[in-house]
Amino acid sequence: MSTAPLLDVRDLEQRYMLPRESLFRPPGQVRALNGVSVQVLPGKSLGIVGESGSGKSTFARVVMALERPTSGQVALLGRDLNRLPADELRRARRDFQMVFQDPYGSLDPRQTIARIVAEPLTVLEGADRTTFRERVAAVLRQVGLRDADMEKYPHEFSGGQRQRIAIARALITQPKLIVADEPVSALDVSVQAQVLNLMQDLQDQFGLSYVLISHDLAVVDYLCDEVAVMYLGRIVEQGRPEDLFERSAHPYTRALLDAVPRARAGGGRRRRGAQAIASQSAAATGCPYVARCALADQHCREALPELRKVGEGHLAACHKAEAVMALPPPAAEG
C-alpha cells in the first residue's frame, strides 16, 4: 500500500468576521481554525475530537471544499482542492464524499432513494439511467438494504436505515475518502454499533479512508487509527487512540475523558463549548487552555506551546506534557 498521504492538510486557517459593534472600531474575527496540519494515509482513519466550538465541523467543511480557507492547503491525491477550477473540482468530488450528522435532515423527503443515492453520479459523464439504477442497486446491497428500497422515500425508513442510505450515497462514486461529521450521534445507542460496524466492514472491503468528526471518544477509539484533539481551532494532541486515552499528554484530552459520563447524562459540555467560542474571538497570549488548566504557571500564560513529539507518533501542544503523562489514567481516578 502507498505510504504517500491520501489527504494532506497543511497550516489550515479559517477566520470569520464578526458583526461590527462600532463604526469606530474594525470588526473582530473568530479564529475557527488556527494552523491545523494533518495527514491521512490510504485505507486509514483519522478521528477529530473536541467540544462544540472547537473547530471540528469547520475543518470538515473546509476539507470537503465546501468552504475556501483563509489560508493553508488541502491536498487530496496531490491536488490542492482550493486551486482547482470549478469544473475540475466537481469532477474531483468523485474521490471524496461526506456523510452528515443528521440522517433525517440530510435526505430530501421529496425524492426517492434511487434519486438521492444517484445524485453524486452527476459528476460522471456519459452514464445513462440504466447504469445509474444498476449502481444504486449495487451500493444499497453493500450497505445492507434491498433493490426494492430504491422506489421508497426517506420517511419509510428508520434512523439507522437512513444513515445507511446516506452512506450509500457517499459510496456511489467509489470514493477514496469519506468525511463523516458525527455520523452516529443522532442515532439510538443500539443502532450506533450497527452503523459503525458497517463503516468498518466497508473500509476493509474497499480500502476507504475516513475522517471521522466526533465528540464521542468511544466512537473514534473503535474506528480510527489516529486521533487529533482540537481546542479553539488548534490541534493540541495527536496520536494513536491507545496513547491518547491511556497516556494523555494534554490536560484538555484528560478533561474530555473525564467528562464522558457527565456529557451523556447532562448538558455541561454545551456550556463549555460556548465559552470556547467566545475566547476564539479574542487575541490570546500564551496557552489557549491556560484558564482551565490546574497545572498552568507563568510560562504557560506567556508562551504558546508548539505541537511537539512526546512519544513515538504521539504529539502534544503542552509545556507540561511530561507531567500530564505521569498522572494516573483518567479512568483510574477518583
SSE blueprint and pairings:
Layout: E1 7-17, E2 29-40, E3 45-49, H1 56-63, E4 71-76, E5 79-80, H2 86-92, E6 96-99, H3 113-118, H4 129-142, H5 159-171, E7 177-181, H6 189-206, E8 209-214, H7 217-223, E9 226-231, E10 234-239, H8 241-246, H9 251-265, H10 268-280, H11 298-302, E11 308-311, E12 314-316, H12 321-325
Parallel strand pairs: 3-8, 3-9, 6-7, 7-8
Antiparallel strand pairs: 1-2, 1-4, 4-5, 9-10, 10-12, 11-12
Tally of strands: 12
Number of helices: 12
Q: Which regions have little confidence, pLDDT < 50, spanning 5+ residues?
A: 262-278
* Principal-axis shape: globular
Please summarize the sheet with the most strands.
8 strands, mixed
Write a structural description.
By secondary structure, this protein is an alpha/beta fold. It has a domain at 241-259 and 285-329. The protein contains twelve helices and twelve strands. The protein has helices at residues 56-63, 86-92, 113-118, 129-142, 159-171, 189-206, 217-223, 241-246, 251-265, 268-280, 298-302, 321-325, and strands spanning 7-17, 29-40, 45-49, 71-76, 79-80, 96-99, 177-181, 209-214, 226-231, 234-239, 308-311, 314-316. The strands form two sheets. An eight-stranded mixed beta sheet has the order 6-7-8-3-9-10-12-11, with helices on both faces. A four-stranded antiparallel beta sheet has the order 2-1-4-5. A hairpin with a 2-residue loop joins strand 9 (226-231) and strand 10 (234-239). Mean pLDDT is 87; it is low at 262-278.
